[in-house]
Specification:
Elements lengths: L1 E4 L9 H7 L5 E7 L11 H9 L4 E7 L3 H11 L3 E5 L6 H10 L3 E6 L17 E5 L13 H16 L4 E5 L7 H7 L3 E4 L1 H4 L4 H8 L1
Parallel strand pairs: 1-8, 2-3, 3-4, 4-5, 5-6, 6-7, 7-8
The protein binds D-xylitol-5-phosphate and zinc ion.
Length: 210
Amino acid sequence: MIIAPSVLAADFSQLKSELEKVQEAKWLHIDVMDGHFVPNISFGPVIVQSIKKVSTQIFDTHLMITDPMKYAAPFVNAGSDRITFHIETVDDPIQVINYLKGLGVKVGVSIKPKTEVKTIKKYLKYIDQVLVMSVEPGFGGQKFDPTSLIKIKELDAIRKETGLDFLIVVDGGVNDKNAPLLKEAGTDVLVAGSFIFNSESPQERMDSLK
Ligand code: DX5
Ligand code: ZN
């Protein structure tokens, strides 16, 4: 299981020491919000560039923004290794996927809790990961929506049926209670914000997820 701590839940007044606490994680999850696709604003490429100086982790960037094509390149230049965009934001997913591939990053597609797996089915063969939202995107610290488990099982079944190798990532309300269920359903990557950072020992929390 890959653990991806979500920087959004870190204390930004001491970002460097916060990141040191989760340096054993392979991935770092970076939530980008534009106040348009979601009702919250987080941070832009400048912050990502700063974080890159103190981390060698894989930067898994989750674009919760209306116009992923417009902002993807600055994030890649700032250090993003993987870029996930929301299927709900684009008219021509293939165009966006190809554009992102051209930037040299791994590509993910995300679905909100009310978006069905069938909306992304025909794109699965072109992408590296699917990010299943288990809360409404926009804020950390929300309650896990168990219907995400059904979608993850559906994606895992498609993967087995087709032999495709996209990763299944889950994001929102992940903790040590739902992690075993997520694993069983076919999840490869657990994104977790508050569960990891709202603790005296983020490393212990990550171990418990693993
Ligand atoms: C929500 C973000 C998540 C969030 C997860 O819009 O995409 O990545 O940071 O935070 P928790 O784990 O607190 O739900
Ligand atoms: Zn996220």
